[in-house]
Amino acid sequence: MTAPTMLLLLADGRFPAGAHAHSSGLEAAVAAGRVTDLATLGDYLRGRLATAGLVAAAFAAAACRAAEPSHPRPSPSGEADQSRLRPPPNGDGDRARLTPSPGGDAGQVRRAALARLDAELDARTASLAQRSVSRRQGKALLRAGREIWPAASFDELPAAPGGPHQPLVLGLVGAAAGLDPAQVATVAAHATVTGSASAAVRLLGLDPYQVQALLVRLAAACDATAAQAARAAEEPPERLPAANAPLADIHAEAHATWEVRLFAS
C-alpha cells in the first residue's frame, strides 16, 4: 500500500486500537456543563488541538523520526557515539538533536532516544489519570502494531509500567507503515479532535452531519497543528511543546473516580 493509504488506515477510528472507547475528556466536560452544544464543542476541540493535540503530534512525529532507517548510522568502528543525544560539555543543549552523529549501534541509540521522549512526555502529563490512559492506549496500539506489521521492531520502546505512551507507539507504528514524521503528526492531530467529536454525538445527541461539518471547519487548524508539531519534532526532547490544559487535568482526575461512565476517559 502507498503511504497515503496507510495514513488513512491509521487515522480511521475503526483501526483496532480501542480509541473508540475514549472521549478524551469530553464526557467529564459535558457532565460539568462546559460542553453543551455544537458551538461549545467547537471551542473544546480547538482547545484540545492547541494543547494535547500539539504535544501528542510532536511526540509522535519525534518517535517516528527516531525510528527512521537512517537513524542512526553505524560508524566503521561499530562503536556507539551518542554525543548528540546529550548536551555537549559547554552546556549548549539547544543544538542537541535526536539524530546522532555517524556512529553507534542503531538499536541502542533508538532506545535511548525513545526513553528520553517517554520521560519528557510523562513530565508534560500532570494528571496521573491521563498518564495512565495514555499508557493503556499505547499498550493497545502496540498490540495492533505488532500484529499488523510483525517485521517492525517495537522492542526498543521503554519497558515502562503500564506500557509505553500512545504518541510514541503511534510514531513507531507510523514508521513501520511507511509514513514520515509529518504524516504521523497529521494522524495524531486528527485523532485529537475526531475521537471527542464522535463521543459528542453519543453524549449530547448532536446531529452527526453538523459534527462532521464542524470537523471540516477545523481541518485547517488541524493541518497547521500537525505542521507545527512536525517542525518541533526536529528539536531535542526537552524542547518539544509543553502546552497543557489544567482544567482538562482536573476533569480527568474526577472522571477516573466515577463508578458509572460511558467512556474509559
From TrEMBL:
The gene is ureF. It is found in: Cytoplasm. Required for maturation of urease via the functional incorporation of the urease nickel metallocenter. GO terms for molecular function: nickel cation binding. This is Urease accessory protein UreF. Keywords: Chaperone, Cytoplasm, Nickel insertion. GO terms for cellular component: cytoplasm. Belongs to the UreF family. Pfam families: UreF. InterPro entries: UreF, UreF_sf. It comes from Micromonospora endophytica. PANTHER family: UREASE ACCESSORY PROTEIN F. The keyword Chaperone applies. UreD, UreF and UreG form a complex that acts as a GTP-hydrolysis-dependent molecular chaperone, activating the urease apoprotein by helping to assemble the nickel containing metallocenter of UreC. The UreE protein probably delivers the nickel. Residues 68-108 are annotated as: Disordered.
